[in-house]
């Protein structure tokens, strides 16, 4: 009896150990699968960076979630900043403890000899996003507060009594308290409001450049000369100082707890897609340029009565709604944006992925 009991105990212990082993193996396999899913099935083993490539484009070659790019460099001792990749770099994928990582092979900078000096030449790093895609939005659109907009001087007219003006025209404008020489002629395109109707800013479009004609003195006004016209300027168009440029180089980073809404776009389109720009109700204190965010669509609420109806259906009868339940649909991810320009109360983001048309009211949050 004692021998039989001992055999049962040993068998029970072996079964427990086997169960623990299975749990560990399953956990390891699950962890490996999670990491492996970061890589696309079509990801190349190696890739040589070419002139004209972008970081986002290369990340899209390798990863299902391109914003995770920096995380896969953590075992690499050859590069300090994963956002600085250069033409000629050879990127390869390897596995450490079953976890995919990127390594880079980089040629040493060329040594150029010139009379009296030696200098090392290193090419410029590739861009995060294609400048050709972003440039039109950066150069032609900006957002200012209502108060700032109200104080901008505006164009009054010209010597010929015209109502519109183009490059090389001399135009009289209101005088400004500051003594600036260079201006952007801008026009109000729209008022950006959040989902509660509160004003976030005035969206402006670039019309032309203007230079102060300092040799001409006018009482309570100034004379400016227009140049680089995108369209005809009009009386009432405003003068804005500064250039439409990016603040800094974009460094990709994943949004964490930030949550907001798409509240507009640059062209008043009903539906937006890839490479369109959206306005989101998150300002410079909420997000930084380079922040990657997911786009989510909630779908209409459903009135679950005798005959289920969508809540936004005009045929829903109020008396029926009294004896029914409202079902709120979950928000489903439909795309991603990269924030590239921030303002006081709102930001511009470019759509990099979209499964369906994007419109006002879509949620932006952690991707």
Morphology call = flat
List low-confidence stretches: 18-35
> Can you write the helix and strand succession as a string?
HEHEEEEHEHEEEEEEEEEEEEEEHEEEE
What radius of gyration results from the CA coordinates? Answer: 29 Å
Largest sheet: 7 strands, antiparallel
Distance between the termini: 63 Å
* Mean pLDDT across residues: 81
Strand segment tally: 24
Number of domains: 3
Question: How would you explain this protein's 3D organization?
Answer:
This protein has 367 residues and is α+β, with helices and mostly antiparallel strands. It has three domains: 46-105, no CATH class; 132-240, no CATH class; 253-365, no CATH class. The protein is 17% helix and 35% strand. The protein has helices at 2-36, 55-62, 131-140, 146-151, 318-321, and strands at residues 46-48, 90-96, 99-105, 110-114, 117-121, 141-144, 155-157, 164-165, 170-174, 182-193, 199-212, 221-227, 233-234, 238-240, 253-254, 260-265, 277-280, 291-297, 302-304, 309-310, 325-327, 332-342, 347-354, 363-365. The strands form six sheets. Strands 6, 7, 9, 10, 11, 12 and 14 form a seven-stranded antiparallel sheet that branches. The protein has a six-stranded antiparallel beta barrel with strand order 16-17-23-22-18-24.
């Amino acid at each position: 009896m004692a021998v039989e009991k001992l055999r049962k105990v040993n068998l029970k212990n072996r079964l427990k150990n086997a169960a623990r082993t299975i749990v560990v193996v399953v956990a390891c396999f699950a962890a490996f699968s999670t990491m492996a899913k970061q890589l696309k099935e079509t990801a190349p083993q190696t890739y040589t960076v070419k002139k004209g490539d972008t970081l986002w484009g290369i990340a899209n070659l390798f990863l299902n979630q391109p914003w995770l790019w920096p995380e896969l460099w953590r075992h690499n001792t050859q590069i300090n900043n994963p956002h600085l990749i250069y033409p000629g770099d050879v990127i390869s994928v390897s596995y450490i403890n079953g976890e995919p990582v990127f390594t880079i092979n980089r040629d040493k900078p060329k040594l150029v000899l010139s009379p009296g000096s030696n200098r090392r030449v290193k090419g410029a790093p590739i861009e995060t996003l294609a400048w050709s895609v972003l440039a039109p939005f950066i150069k032609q659109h900006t957002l200012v507060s209502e108060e700032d907009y109200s104080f901008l001087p505006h164009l009054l007219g010209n010597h010929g009594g015209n109502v519109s003006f183009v490059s090389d025209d001399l135009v009289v404008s209101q005088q400004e308290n500051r003594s600036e020489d260079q201006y952007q002629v801008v026009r109000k395109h729209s008022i950006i409001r959040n989902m509660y109707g509160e004003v976030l800013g005035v969206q402006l479009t670039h019309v032309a450049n203007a230079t102060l004609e300092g040799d001409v003195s006018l009482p309570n006004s100034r004379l400016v000369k227009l140049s680089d016209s995108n369209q005809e300027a009009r009386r009432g168009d405003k003068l804005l100082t500064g250039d439409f440029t990016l603040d800094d180089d974009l460094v990709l980073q994943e949004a964490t707890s930030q949550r907001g809404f798409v509240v507009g776009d640059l062209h008043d389109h009903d539906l937006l897609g890839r490479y369109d720009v959206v306005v989101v109700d998150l300002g410079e204190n909420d997000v930084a340029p380079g922040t990657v965010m997911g786009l989510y669509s909630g779908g209409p609420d459903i009135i679950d009565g005798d005959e289920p109806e969508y809540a936004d259906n005009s045929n829903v009868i109020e008396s029926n709604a009294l004896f029914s339940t409202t079902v709120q649909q979950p928000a489903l991810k439909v795309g991603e944006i990269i924030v590239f320009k921030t303002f006081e109360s709102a930001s511009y983001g470019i759509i990099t992925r979209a499964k369906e048309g994007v419109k006002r009211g879509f949620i932006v949050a952690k991707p």
